[in-house]
């Protein structure tokens, strides 16, 4: 089994790509750069003020993790240490860091203020295996206690990035405003603020028109008199029942706007049942509706972000999920990561009515609508074709989903097997980090005693890769439940990770222990991760004896080949998609209707594994999107 990783720029905790003090400069200093740390201490990086071509200067100081004070944690890809390194300074000591980290330090240092950071490559003495093990065990707490985590993608070089970030921010702000305006009536004034005086005048006039009918405020607040505003930039539009945290103890709730002037003027001429309905239309931002060209531009920008190696790095999963606040930064552009997920992920917001670009504009789950956009994308110049964005959407959707569940304490039954099933395709320079990067999530969220106990002692860089993989595999076997939880099939049994890997020709590990460094491809037919119906029907016990996996199960029947399945055309006439084929006279190049049905059957069922896959937890949309992504990739390869 080979554990070499061709992706040597993904970052990790490996020594060869850490910040390296210059030996000659270190000798001139009376004090070594890295002093031993107490058991619960970490190092914080003080990023000293500077600008432009000023050298990057830092200071390192020890702090107790129990009360470290405010700091920002950096989540990033170290970069290729052998290609491009830069120099920063800690006192008289020169440190050699990768170019990506150097650019991040340049981006985030302030002209006049010292800023406090935690950055693994510099804050951990990477030459000490003992310290590295100790600090990595505390990694989850380090990111949890940070004021915020900056997810640094690197420098930007795409013309549509500004639109990508602007659309997300504008739609989220509108959703927040809509949420406030639609709240029950109360005593807190809701006030619009804008420099667009012409639009503000229109809103005020329409409000006054409805005020005569006592319809612009709730029943409980009709007695309130609205004094004329002395500032034309302010217009009171409602009185709502708001909590203190929503108003930050202010006497009013202010909505700051950049009006879409054309939309306001159009809304003024239309008839609405009440003032609130008019208001919700009038304050929609320009970014609320997108043309096909703008959608293509956004897909192109998403594709650019998806190409960043950051998303493939194993450690970002834990760093993003456990952080209280996460900010996504690419060059000069930044946005709250939760906002980015709401506007560009697969998951619908459960609290805010956020218009999602992927689901509502591009309409990725609507095959016919998405095909229209896709064909325009495919007709772009070859260097602008956007296909990789599909993998980014899946990644941010998964991380966003687990962030939301974690923040609401909805993962008490989290297991290592489950995490490896979801995030097992991430990459790391050090293969051990494929396991270690997920351990903190068990400590943070799982309430299963066996999972937490294993997580407390599982991280050790003194163990070789084979030992780490073997211990992880045995833990998955040992913690496999003897019964299903809530009568649901489990996906985290060890055989769900065993794949047909023809390149695995060594004997360093038993065949039942997964090679988690391999790209996961075709599944074992009987124990595929996406086929938990086997586990639903046949429960089995598993245990490890030496290097052997011992299974006990039940023989239920002898299965022979069924040759007539799938040939009942009447059955498939009930499928809406096949109705579309017939009604729109599609697929005529295949000849007769019988041949066209044969092509339909093979494309949709026989040649597509989605036709044989079980509904995982009711999430049929994810299966459809998986199949769609495979189809898009096939189109790209054959266009």
UniProtKB/TrEMBL annotation:
Signal peptide: none annotated. It comes from the Eukaryota. Pfam families: HET. InterPro entries: HET, HetReg/Transcr_Mod. Transmembrane segments: none annotated. Residues 1-32 are annotated as: Disordered. Residues 71-176 form the Heterokaryon incompatibility domain. PANTHER family: ANKYRIN REPEAT DOMAIN-CONTAINING PROTEIN 39 HOMOLOG-RELATED (PTHR24148), HET DOMAIN PROTEIN (AFU_ORTHOLOGUE AFUA_8G01020) (PTHR24148:SF73). This is HET domain-containing protein. It comes from Trichoderma simmonsii.
């Amino acid at each position: 089994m080979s554990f070499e990783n061709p992706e040597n720029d993904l970052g990790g905790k490996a020594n060869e790509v850490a910040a390296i003090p210059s030996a000659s400069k270190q000798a001139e200093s009376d004090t070594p750069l890295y002093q031993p740390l107490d058991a619960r201490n970490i190092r914080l990086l003080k990023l000293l003020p500077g600008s432009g071509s000023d050298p990057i200067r830092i200071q390192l100081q020890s702090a107790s993790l129990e009360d470290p004070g405010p700091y920002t944690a950096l989540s990033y890809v170290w970069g290729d240490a052998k290609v491009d390194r830069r120099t920063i300074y800690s006192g008289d000591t020169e440190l050699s860091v990768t170019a990506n980290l150097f650019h991040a330090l340049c981006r985030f240092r302030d002209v006049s203020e010292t800023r406090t950071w935690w950055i693994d490559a510099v804050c951990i003495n990477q030459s000490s295996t003992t310290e590295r093990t100790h600090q990595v065990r505390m990694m989850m707490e380090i990111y949890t206690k940070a004021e915020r985590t900056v997810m640094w993608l690197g420098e930007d070089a795409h013309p549509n990035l500004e639109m990508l970030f602007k659309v997300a921010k504008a739609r989220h702000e509108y959703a927040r405003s809509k949420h406030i305006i639609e709240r029950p009536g109360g005593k807190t004034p809701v006030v619009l603020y804008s420099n667009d005086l012409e639009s503000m005048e229109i809103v005020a006039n329409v409000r006054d028109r409805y005020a005569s009918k006592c319809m612009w405020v709730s029943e409980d607040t009709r007695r309130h008199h609205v004094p004329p505003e002395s500032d034309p930039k302010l217009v009171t539009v409602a009185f709502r029942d708001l909590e203190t945290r929503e108003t930050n103890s202010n006497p009013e709730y202010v909505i700051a706007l950049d009006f879409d002037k054309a939309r306001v003027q159009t809304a003024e001429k239309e008839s609405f049942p009440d003032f609130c309905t008019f208001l919700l239309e009038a304050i929609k931002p320009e970014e609320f509706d997108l043309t096909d060209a703008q959608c293509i531009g956004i897909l192109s920008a998403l594709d650019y972000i998806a190409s960043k190696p950051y998303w493939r790095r194993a450690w970002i999963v834990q760093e993003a999920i456990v952080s209280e606040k996460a900010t996504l930064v690419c060059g000069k552009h930044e946005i709250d990561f939760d906002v980015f997920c709401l506007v560009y992920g697969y998951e619908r917001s459960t609290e805010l009515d956020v218009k999602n670009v992927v689901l509502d504009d591009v309409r990725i789950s609507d095959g016919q609508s998405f095909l229209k956009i896709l064909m325009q994308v495919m007709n772009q110049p070859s260097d602008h074709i956007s296909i990789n964005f599909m993998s980014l959407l899946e990644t941010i959707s998964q991380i966003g989903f687990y962030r939301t569940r974690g923040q609401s304490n909805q993962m008490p039954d989290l297991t290592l097997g489950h995490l490896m099933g979801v995030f097992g395709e991430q990459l790391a320079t050090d293969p051990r980090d494929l396991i270690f990067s997920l351990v903190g999530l068990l400590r943070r969220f799982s309430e299963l005693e066996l999972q937490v106990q294993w997580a407390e002692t599982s991280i050790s860089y003194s163990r070789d890769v084979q030992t780490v993989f073997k211990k992880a595999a045995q833990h998955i076997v040992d913690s496999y439940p003897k019964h299903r939880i809530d009568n649901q099939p489990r996906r985290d049994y060890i055989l769900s990770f065993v794949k047909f890997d023809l390149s695995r020709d060594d004997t360093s590990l038993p065949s039942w222990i997964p090679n988690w460094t391999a790209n996961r491809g075709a599944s074992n037919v009987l124990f595929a991760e996406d086929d938990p119906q086997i586990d639903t029907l046949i429960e089995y016990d598993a245990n490890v004896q030496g290097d052997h996996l011992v299974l006990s199960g039940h023989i239920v029947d002898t299965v022979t080949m069924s040759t007539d399945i799938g040939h009942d055309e009447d059955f498939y006439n009930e499928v809406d998609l096949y109705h579309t084929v017939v009604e729109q006279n599609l697929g005529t190049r295949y000849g007769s209707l019988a041949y066209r049905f044969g092509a339909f059957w093979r494309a949709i069922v026989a040649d597509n594994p989605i036709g044989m896959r079980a509904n995982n937890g009711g999430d049929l949309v994810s299966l459809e999107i998986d199949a769609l992504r495979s189809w898009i990739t096939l189109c790209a390869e054959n266009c």
